[in-house]
Structures are given as C-alpha cells and as structure tokens.
Amino acid sequence: LKLQTALHQALVNEDFYLVYQPKIQLTDLKPSGFEALIRWCDPILGQISPAEFIPLAEKIGLIWDIGLWVLKTACLQGVKWLIQGKTFERISVNVASLQLQRNDFVDKVRSILLETGLPAKHLELEVTESCMMHDPDAIIRDLKLLGAMGIALSIDDFGTGYSSLNYLKKLPIDKLKIDQSFVRDIPHDTNNTAIAKAVIALGHALNLQIIAEGVETEEQADFLRLNGCDLAQGYLYSKPQLPEELNLFFSQNP
Ligand code: G
Ligand code: G
Ligand code: MN
Ligand code: NA
C-alpha cells in the first residue's frame, strides 16, 4: 500500500525519468536507435525497479497515465536530439497491453506526435505477445493504424508469452525482439542456441527484422551476426543511460 501511494505521488511530482539503451546494427556496428526505459527514484524509498512498479501500475490502473508520460517524454527527447543535429533512426517505447486495449490509444499517440513534433518515422512501439489475449481483431486494427502513420512496431520478449504463429502472421509488425532469456549463454547453451536460430529464420521468412536483447559478450554478438540477426542491444554496447551520456551512439554527431 505504501508503494501504491508513492506511485501516485511519483506521477504528480515527476519522480520518473527515462534512460535510453542503444540498438546496434550487427553487420557494421553502426548505431540504429534507442529503447526508452523508465526509472523511478522516490525521495524516501529510493530507486525502485520498473520490474516491480510497472506490474503494480498495471494492477492499480496507473499504467495509462505513466505510459503517456513515457511516450511524451521520449518524443520530446527525440525532438531535442534532432534539433541538436544528433540523428538516429528510431526511439522505441514500451507499450503495456492494457494501454493498447483502450480504444483511444491510437488517438493519444497521434496527438503526442503532433504536440511534441516528433516525426512518426522516428518512433517505434514495443508491444508484447500478450496484447493479443483480448480482442485480437481490435488490436490488429489499431496496430495497422499506427503502422500506417509511419510508426514501427516490434514484438518485445518474443517467445516468452502467449505466442501463436497464427497471430504472428496477422500482426502488422516490423521486428521481433529475441528475449534475453534466449540470448543467455549462447552459443554454449544448446537449447537457447537452437531457439535463437529458429527465431531468426522464422522472422526473416516473415520479412521481419530481428533484434537480440541482453547481448553481453562478443561471443554472443559473433554468433548472432553469423546467423543473420540484424540488430543487438545489451551491456556489451551500452547500459541504458541518461540522454547526455549517449553521444557515441548517434548516426551522426554534430
Ligand atoms: O529497464 P529494466 O530492465 O529494469 O526493465 C524492467 C522491465 O520493465 C522490463 O520488462 C521492461 O520492459 C519494463 N519497462 C521499462 N520501462 C518501461 C516502460 O516505459 N513501460 C513499460 N510498460 N514497461 C517498461
Ligand atoms: O522487457 P524489456 O525487453 O523491455 O526489458 C529490457 C530490460 O533488460 C531493461 O530493464 C534493461 O535494463 C535490461 N537489460 C538491457 N541490456 C541488458 C543486458 O545486456 N543484460 C541484462 N541482464 N539485462 C539487460
Ligand atoms: Mn522492451
Ligand atoms: Na525483453
């Protein structure tokens, strides 16, 4: 209950901030974009992990407002970078399934793009497979609308949730993110190695780009590159960092 009260306060007091983790093209090691990740530093409780407070926010209905704050803040950061001459392909923002279930989500995204001035071609949304658990037809319709605006869509944590290959075929998405649980210990863990290869093959057969997350070693990166994985994200390249710490990771630095 204490955490719940603090979470409400955090939104009012703006105790949230975003960190950004670079995504790297495996073929040439050029930077591609950033994933925005929320952080919360409570004045009394200290740093609290999103793994803890995002599920709570979903439970108590705060995820909608927090999600809009994240989207708006990431878009404003993107515009700031562009104005500074720091170019990047896209900023990706995580979207909780509960956000997508609201029928005003697409309108909200559109108005945040307008309000902040970020061109849609610089935005990507990361959704999870679980978004398909309620009213998949409505979700597919909304994802198509977002895609038509020029926003890229990726499936986050691919393979850990409610996957149905039937939905994968229908979803208007651009990328699959191989969950970090499958990247761990490749190429030594034979099961994960097989899964990673299979996801890359499946994704490419469906014309999707593949990004691996949680890449921590050169060995993992080499394996992924050799097997055709397009992009990688992980501590090998960079931790999620504050905007001003990311100068190495723009396609073009001023
Ligand atoms: O950044 P970190 O590894 O601590 O994130 C832990 C979890 O919180 C991950 O599952 C991540 O997807 C989730 N998360 C981080 N930022 C956001 C956000 O802005 N929105 C949502 N919905 N989830 C987030
Ligand atoms: O669920 P999602 O994929 O959005 O969450 C990404 C989470 O993974 C973030 O909390 C981020 O801090 C964390 N992360 C990013 N890179 C690495 C990595 O190389 N190793 C580990 N263990 N975690 C990572
Ligand atoms: Mn993500
Ligand atoms: Na993940």
TrEMBL record:
Protein name: cyclic-guanylate-specific phosphodiesterase
Superkingdom of origin: Bacteria
Residues of the full protein shown: 584 to 837 of 839
Residue ranges of domain EAL in the record: 1-254
